[in-house]
Amino acid sequence: MPEILLPIGPQHPALKEPVNFKIVVDGETIVRLDLDISYNHRGIEKAAEQRDFVRVVPLLARVCGICSHSHTTAFVKGIEEAMQLEVPARAQYIRTIVAELERMHSHLLWLGVAAHEIGFNTLFMWTWRDREIIQDMLEETTGNRVIYGVNEVGGVRCDLTLDLIRASFEHLQKLEDRITQYVGMVKNDETLHMRFSGVGKLSKADALKYGTVGPTARASGVDYDIRKDDSYLAYDEMPWKVVTDTHGDVFGRTLVRIGEMQESLTIVRFCLENLPEGPIAVKAPKTAPPAEVLSRYEAPRGELVHFIRTNNTDRVERLDIRTPTLANWTAVAVSLVNQNIADIPVIVAAIDPCLSCTSRITLLNGRNKKTSLMTWDELRSYSGEYYRRKRCA
Amino acid sequence: MMDAFQLAVYILLFPGFLFLVLYAFFFKFLDRKITARMQNRVGPPLLQPFADFVKMLAKEVINPKGVDRQALDVAPLLALAAVMTAYLYVPIIGESPLAFQGDLVVVLYLLTLPTIILFIIGWLSRNVFATIGGVRAVTQMFIYEVPFFLALITPALMAGSWSISDIIAWQQQNTWFAVLQPIGFIVALIGLQAKLERVPFDIPEAETEIVAGPWTELTGRRLALMQLSMNITLVTGSALVAAVFLGGPMTPWTIAPDWLSASIGFLLFLAKTFAILLILISITVASGRIRIDQLNDIGWKYLASAAFIQMGIVIMMNYLWVGA
Fold first, then answer.
1. A345 and B211 in contact by Cβ < 8 A?
2. What is A62-74 written as a DSSP string?
3. Could you give the 3-state DSSP secondary structure of residue B258?
4. Do the Cβ atoms of B138 and B115 come closer than 8 Å?
């Protein structure tokens, strides 16, 4: 058959956020593809440089709705390191609890999305229903369902009372029952097996070569988890293990995420049982001494990196966010070649893409309907120009 | 025989087209509601499918650049006409007045048309998603249609007639073909599921892969009519399987007044189509979509073989008992 160009995105039912694949197919097989990310420039890094540390934290919670805790924790962790601040143990435990709850609800959400990509809507509806248990827990604890606003520089903003802890154990029991059922479903369901096994293969060598992170890397047998390798919060004080798998395909990534949910349950239980007494925050100084910090954090999707440079003021001089999705895109593009068209959504979904990073933007000229790309340098000089004009005005 | 007036009432009002369209909407409602409840959702209200239909009739028809408008207008009507005609030959209350020797083959043929029309729509749409979806639809048809035909023809072999009414009469005297030919019954149900393009066989219109397949460029009344014809295919297909395998609307023993017998038969027809719908929904809810290459393997390796085995068994039985 002749080769056909199949455009997937920027608007497509399988994609929740804009990204564009120009896929050349021969019949039902993918020959090669061109990946175009960055349809959405939000200017969050620049905005973060404009406000003080107290006001940056709520801003960073809005980088991504699903991992709002990840971004704020990565940031406050870095700032606390720059300030050389000793954070109370109770605060670290509460941050760990929220982080692991977030990981569980993110993985449940992912399982639903992956099932939806193969048309298995029952699993989709069920996982999203059970995700509500976690969101209820988060609401009871923090007052919010999505953007929890738990973190502040120097500690956390809300404490766990005894009643809350008791209620949490009940919720966790319910959650464990449901997760156990999903483990069974994933391992035994025939259609899931048919669509996940052997799809989007990524060998261990390739996973390392293309710099994958998170469950994508761990499903290819790479033992890489920031929580273990560069331990932070309270992770080195409790027993838990890094879940890896050797399948290297979408099925392996599912098993890793399912296993991580079970590990998260253990971690949350341990934290709730061994919650240290004491204050939940220390008073942080207004300014941070000059420092450069690379703050690494294991978000649900993989390694999240915040590069922070401070300069003795109450603002960051530079904040650079490298999200796990950006690290995983190359691996997606590589593992799509020679696969079936039908497997595109599920392979793309397997890294749990969260498109909140940018390097270029597409310009659309309304008059002659032409599109053009802006390179990184052009975008930088344009943004400099834009803000200079804005300041003068 | 009926006179012309009765025949017109039969075809146009009850149990003909008017009833058919209403029943198709109700069937769609049941389908969506039960699926939703199984998935722990609320589901649509009773009149939702009808409201959808009316709304879409009122919507603008969008013509993509360079399409053949008339052909795209006619295609959904053709599909609708085909499945509505097929319905007339399936017994609903007593015998169909249009029944003749060989109507089984005509019904099977007419039920195949919507798929072919979907392929044509995909081709006419001049859209890459629609084209791929159309090619997938026709590929899938070649896979499931053979086992489906074999499974539905095997009861005809046993009953010794190509007429649906005769097959029902045979079952009235003996027993249901679902009991005598369980393999064929299962193959027919799976084939019906594939014909209706429901999960796990919704490969041609896989939403997350190719947007809506051949349906991508259908808008307004074209979309409304095409969806209506798929709903009617659901009713006609269930009615056909109910007639051939579950004894259709015939009561197992004679009931004194004719009208009572007919109404009990009609209720039986409703119950049996509902039972088949329940099975189809269960398959939908319990599975994800398979790939076209996997369907090819399953269809030819297992479904076709199973249908052939069933047919072989029936031929052997005919030879041993009837032939001797």
1. no
2. TS-STTHHHHHHH
3. helix
4. yes
d(Cα B155, Cα B106) in Å, to the nearest integer?
Answer: 16
How near does any CA of chain A get to the CA of B226, in Å?
21
pTM of the model: 0.83
User: At A6, is the secondary structure helix, strand, or coil?
Assistant: strand
Q: ipTM score here?
A: 0.82
The one-letter amino acid at A306? H
Chain B residues in contact with A336 by the CB 8 A cut-off are none
pLDDT tens-digit readout, B117-174: 999 998 888 888 888 888 889 889 989 988 999 998 888 888 888 888 888 888 888 7
Q: Which two tokens stand for residue B122?
A: 């995909």
Length of chain B: 324
Domain A44-326 listed as CATH 3.40.50.150: no
B59 touches chain A (CB under 8 A): no
Look at residues A116, A25, A108 and name the one whose alpha carbon lies nearest to residue A349: A116
- B184 touching chain A per CB within 8 A: no
Q: Write out chain A residues lying below 8 Å of B128, CB-based.
A: 4-7
CB-based burial label for B139 (10 Å; 0-12, 13-18, 19+): middle
Least Cα distance to A24 among A56, A1, A44 occurs for A1
Return the residue of B nearest to A191 by Cα.
B288
Taking the domains of chain B in order of start, what are their residue ranges?
4-322
Min distance B123 CA to chain A CA atoms (Å): 14
Q: A364 forms bridges with which residues in the sheet?
A: A371
